[in-house]
Design goal:
The complex is a heterotrimer of chains A (448), B (132) and C (504). Chain A is of the alpha/beta class and 448 residues long. Chain A has helices at 8-18, 48-60, 81-87, 90-93, 105-122, 134-149, 162-172, 197-200, 220-229, 313-316, 329-366, 391-399, 430-445; strands spanning 67-68, 126-127, 153-157, 178-182, 205-209, 233-238, 255-259, 275-279, 292-296, 302-306, 372-373, 382-386, 403-404, 407-408, 419-423. The N and C termini of chain A lie far apart (58 Å). Chain B has four helices and nine strands. In chain B, strand 6 (54-60) and strand 7 form a beta hairpin. With 504 residues, chain C is an alpha/beta fold. Chain C contains 16 helices and twelve strands. In chain C, strand 2 (184-188), helix 7 (194-201) and strand 3 form a beta-alpha-beta unit. In chain C, helix 4 (107-113) packs across helix 10. The chains are: A alpha/beta (448), B alpha+beta (132), C alpha/beta (504). Chains in contact: A-B, A-C, B-C. At the A-C interface, helix 1, helix 2, helix 3, helix 4 and helix 5 of A face helix 2, helix 3, helix 4, helix 5 and helix 6 of C.
């Protein structure tokens, strides 16, 4: 087998050196009745070429070559080949968690740069070395707010990503954490009128997302003022991180839980992505996940180490801030390299292109009879439209045009049937936007 | 090394009594076991602590140690200097690096604690266990 | 086997000297930045430009990001290439980290994970244009079930620790459906730290159980502990000292008789794949670490994937959605599962990691047994050649890893960390130190099947040379490593006054 570096005679000699007559002897400690006598019924073995053929065949069964107008938490953005060339270096790809700092300065330095970039972008003082993804980052941020306030009730906007809310519910269920949903206003933003002093009193946190699941930006300063006055914390989720190129960062938030997928990570049918938690310095000891910190060696040379590890499970065990161990280091590296390439101006330009293209698409689609915008609040690269027909039917027809249509909100919001969330990024050519508009017009003109 | 007017617990805290007030810290043995202290977490003034219960933590790079109250009482003052220089716990555990001052609920609780001689015998025994 | 005396002398000569590794002092990317530089350009905008302050409102627009990098493409390439040269990696040599299973990460897996039509797919796209992705997930489930002997699987958990939590939530939901969720989960003192941390998030109390003198679960003690308050026992098998729990059947019986379940941490599955199946020896729930046993790259700390496999009785409680194959042969995501624990992560999990694990499994097929055999041969070969030089606290048959202790070297004032740091000078990544907790001064060595006999010999030579150095020149170990770009770093200073980001 090509991955195994031993010849049959080497195996034999090694067994001899061990003093075993056969390899079976090394497995004697497993009771005989549990030792398999037959080979496992697995497909393979396959050569490299056969493996490639298998996966190419699978790729052909997907939406390869389609234009997609899906966002809803996962975004298609331009990626430079430079990023992939660098992360495929074995020294990054095949390296372990940097516990042995002297032989992991590459990873540690990159994590420190990642933490810096995430702090700069979110307007927060510190950020961690990554969480699994946005949904688990948000859950951990809420648990962090619970620890910080000692309160066990959390208010969460209905406009937060529905799957993120489901993950939070799964975790909260057995921890005595009460979750209350806050409705949205006609603007698509969280309904400030619903946030009464009575509701806020005793709440650990209010959780919002901006841009929220409907694509609408939330007004954080007002929200933060109200929440802080009641002694609670503001937790802000971000799923479309490219928005931070032009949108005001959530500096008023106490904890930011971000999905960093938009920074150069492929959609890859749901993962791996890269979650981030950023917060105020005074809260850092309640932050979950690994942290790289700067220090020096005996000769005074700058170096980086994993630090504040007493928060983590391998030391504090059942009293740890979280059970997270493995994180998404490689995708934190992807985001770091991608953001270094884009730089200050590139990120801003990318964000501006998203805004412009989404506005163009929205205006063109609104010209189609029966199609209208649903929410009045400001939007970045996603917007909600109402259609005169079932979104599912429209989307099925769009597939024939090689278009993956917008996200049907009715899936998660019964009150929003016939509404869909359209996403347009810098990767969507104008011609494809126009194709979508023409196709939608034609579909709606066709009698049912 | 171990002041004779202090009383000691099996969890390696000390307490020095001054009328109804007690000053609490961790012992030299405890700081040596823990290594370089990097962080101390203490309760706010006004907190009620209960004898034998944890009221804070002392952390080194790779270990966390809970601090248990030798007596019950109300915290009246915490050593603010430790927030910026936790290394004091390694340098002067029985003096400058006291952790909290408490007003005792029941000064008689003190009688259940060890005196310096008993505590030294206790840690000598511990050291023997370790070496075998 | 040749003991590397000459090399030892050379290395000894480098004590305190400047690094022989890359000597360029690469600055942080922020320190290379200058206004107006950029490393990536976008195609021109093909729709009318929009003024953000007008479009969003002045209050929603940000100023330029202070301190954000501005560098060219070549600078990015050089910066990260230089950083990479300060890392150790499997592609460079053996990574004997016990419990971490640092094996070769096949390159074809990287290639197929990047294919257009796989990497490009959106998790919310309709099932009719996701058949390829769904089939990959379904095929992987079938393979993992065959290897573990379990009945049903979820691929959603993002890592081993999340798999643990998922498994525990499934146990909880099942017991609740039986009328009583119970209170405690038993964990041997040899367990990974994630186990107790996960138990708490699942809403259970941790009850630690002391291992017996052989480092195994004490069945008499276990019997005392198991009562109607106990929901499950969480064990690792082979245990963290690399030894198979011989009385596993009896252990499972003790739990099952009292209505409790057996959770197996599959961190050490590299000792069992193709040899024995947890489903056969009484395990009810388990997770696998695909970034260990199934070769997906560790990437400097992640990503991972922690699929959970369960017995039939627990299937209704798997998180949503579940990947299913319908009668017409089409694949689908089943969301309609009323007894499910909910969701533990958005979408279907770390698809890119799952896909690589399938590629790995397809490469071996039933031959996966050979990989397991080689891993166990390597561990026993190393044990044989280091026994007598390093203390072996538990003298039971080793499987895929062996745990020594620093007891002998301690007499010279040298501990497991010093030996580990000195290994770096010999060109090896250290073994696992300070774990498992039941072995003071642990030195936990897991070579995996990816190491040739020659690489094992080099490692043995290095370890023997270091043992000799520990006697002759302990200071050399205590100040190691001597060959890296930076020496031992001041972790105390880092933790006392944390600097977690660069500032202008």
């Amino acid at each position: 087998m090509r991955y195994l570096p031993k010849s049959p005679s080497e195996r034999h000699e090694m067994l001899e050196a061990i003093g075993a007559r056969s390899v079976e002897e090394l497995f004697q400690s497993i009771p005989a009745k549990f030792r398999l006598r037959e080979p496992l019924p697995l497909p393979g073995p396959l050569s490299e070429m056969e493996i490639i053929q298998y996966f190419q065949a699978r790729a052909a069964e997907n939406a390869r070559g389609f234009t997609s107008f899906l966002g809803a938490g996962v975004y298609q953005h331009l990626r430079s080949v430079v990023t992939d060339a660098l992360v495929q270096r074995g020294e990054f790809l095949t390296s372990y968690t940097p516990y042995q700092a002297e032989m992991a300065q590459g990873t540690l330095t990159a994590i420190f740069e990642f933490q810096t970039l995430m702090s700069q972008l979110t307007g927060q003082e510190v950020a961690n070395a990554s969480m699994y993804d946005g949904s688990t980052a948000l859950t951990e941020a809420v648990l962090m707010a619970e620890r910080l306030t000692g309160r066990h009730r959390v208010l969460i906007a209905r406009s937060v990503h529905p799957e993120y809310r489901q993950v939070l519910a799964t975790y909260a269920k057995n921890l005595g954490l009460e979750i209350e949903e806050i409705r949205y206003a006609p603007s698509g933003q969280v309904d400030h009128a619903a946030l009464t002093p009575e509701l806020l009193a005793g709440a650990a946190a209010i959780v919002v997302q901006s841009p929220n699941f409907f694509g609408v930006l939330e007004e954080l300063p007002a929200l933060a003022e109200k929440t802080h006055a009641a002694g609670g914390l503001v937790v802000t989720a971000i799923t479309e991180a490219v928005s931070l190129g032009i949108v005001r960062p959530p500096a008023e938030a106490d904890i930011v839980a971000m999905e960093g997928q938009a920074f150069g990570v492929a959609p890859s049918y749901g993962g791996p992505y890269v979650g981030v938690i950023a917060t105020r310095e005074k809260f850092m000891r309640q932050m979950p996940g690994r942290l790289a910190g700067q220090t020096t060696d005996a000769a005074g040379r700058r170096g980086f180490v994993l630090t504040l590890a007493t928060r983590e499970q391998h030391i504090r065990r059942e009293k740890a801030t979280s059970n997270i161990c493995t994180n998404e280091a490689l995708y934190a590296l992807v985001a770091t390299i991608h953001l270094c390439l884009l730089g200050k101006e590139g990120l801003r330009e990318m964000a501006l292109q998203n805004l412009a293209k989404a506005r163009f698409a929205q205006a063109e689609l609104e010209k189609v009879p029966g199609v209208r915008r649903v929410f009045s609040g400001p939007t970045f690269n996603e917007f909600t439209l109402e259609f005169p027909r079932s979104v599912k039917l429209i989307n099925t027809a769009l597939l024939r045009e090689k278009i993956v249509g917008p996200f049907a909100l009715g899936t998660h919001y019964p009150e929003l049937t016939k509404r869909a969330l359209v996403c347009v990024t810098e990767t969507t050519p104008r011609a494809e936007i126009e194709h979508l508009v023409t196709a939608v017009r034609r579909i709606l003109e066709t009698p049912i | 090394m171990y002041p004779s007017d202090y009383r000691y617990t099996k969890d390696h805290e000390w307490i020095k009594l001054d009328g109804p007030m007690g000053t609490i810290g961790i012992t030299d043995y405890a700081q040596a076991e823990l290594g370089d202290v990097v962080f101390v977490e203490l309760p706010k003034a006004g907190t009620q602590v209960k004898a034998g219960q944890s009221f804070g933590t002392v952390e080194s790079v790779k270990a966390v140690s809970e601090i248990f109250a030798p007596v019950s009482g109300e915290v009246v003052e915490t050593n603010a200097a430790l927030a910026d220089s936790p290394e004091k716990i390694n340098q002067d555990p029985h003096g400058a690096a006291w952790l909290v001052k408490v007003r005792l609920v029941d000064p008689k609780e003190i009688s259940g604690l060890m005196d310096a001689a008993a505590y030294q015998a206790y840690i000598a025994e511990k050291a023997k266990e370790h070496s075998t | 086997m040749n003991s590397k005396t000459t090399e030892t002398e050379t290395l000894a000569g480098t004590t305190g000297a400047a690094s022989r590794h890359i000597s360029r002092d690469e600055r942080l990317i922020f320190e290379r930045s200058a206004p107006g530089k950029r490393g990536m350009e976008l195609p021109p905008l093909d729709v009318p430009a929009v003024d953000p302050a007008t479009a969003l409102g002045r209050d929603f627009v940000r100023d330029s990001i202070e301190g954000f990098p501005e560098v060219s493409e070549i600078e990015v390439i050089r910066h990260f290439t230089r950083l990479s040269s300060w890392n150790y990696a499997i592609d460079l040599g053996m990574y004997p980290l016990g419990s971490c299973t640092m094996k070769y990460n096949p390159r074809v897996n990287e290639f197929v994970a990047r294919l257009d039509g796989l990497a490009s797919e959106h998790p919310q796209q309709p099932a009719e244009v996701s058949q390829g992705c769904l089939r990959i997930l379904h095929d992987l489930q079938k393979c993992l079930l065959a290897i573990t002997g379990m009945d049903a699987a979820t691929l959603q958990p993002a890592a081993g620790a999340q798999g643990e939590l998922t498994g525990l939530l499934i146990i909880r939901a099942y017991l609740e459906s039986q009328g009583n969720a119970r209170k405690k989960v038993l964990i041997p003192d040899s367990a990974h730290g994630t186990n107790p941390a996960s138990v708490v998030i699942a809403g259970y109390e941790v009850q630690n159980i002391k291992s017996n003198q052989r480092g195994q679960i004490d069945t008499d003690r276990l019997r005392e502990y198991v009562n109607d308050d106990v929901a499950a026992l969480m064990l690792t098998n082979p245990s963290t000292i690399g030894v198979f729990e011989e009385r596993i059947a009896e252990i499972a019986q003790i739990l099952h008789e009292r209505g409790a379940l057996v959770y197996m941490d599959g961190a050490n599955m590299n000792a069992l794949a193709g040899i024995a199946r947890p489903g056969d020896f009484g395990v009810d729930v388990m997770h696998l670490n695909l970034h260990k046993t199934f070769s997906t790259p560790h990437g400097g700390g992640g990503p991972g994937a922690g699929p959970v496999m369960v017995k039939k009785i627990l299937e209704p409680f798997l998180p949503v959605p579940v990947v299913v194959q319908k009668e017409n042969g089409q694949y689908a995501l089943d969301h309609n599962r009323p007894r499910a624990i909910g969701r533990v992560r958005a979408y279907c999990g770390n698809f890119g990691v799952l896909l690589r694990a399938l590629a790995y499994t397809l490469a071996y097929g039933p031959g996966i047994r050979q990989a397991t055999e080689d891993a166990v041969v390597n561990a026993n070969y190393i044990r044989k050649h280091l026994e007598g030089i390093f203390d072996l606290p538990y003298n039971l048959p080793s499987m895929h890893e062996v745990v020594f202790s620093d007891a002998r070297q301690k007499k010279h004032g040298v501990n497991t960390t010093d030996i580990a740091k000195r290994l770096i000078d010999y060109g090896f990544h250290p073994y696992t130190t300070a774990f498992p907790l039941i072995v003071p001064g642990a030195m936990m060595i897991e070579p995996t099947e990816s190491e040739s006999r020659e690489e094992c010999d080099l490692f043995i030579g290095a370890m023997r040379a270091i043992a000799a150095e520990a006697e002759a020149n302990p200071e050399l170990l205590k100040t190691a490593p001597h060959s890296t770009r930076v020496g031992r770093l001041d972790e105390v200073a880092a933790a006392r006054k944390p600097i977690l980001r660069w500032k202008p």
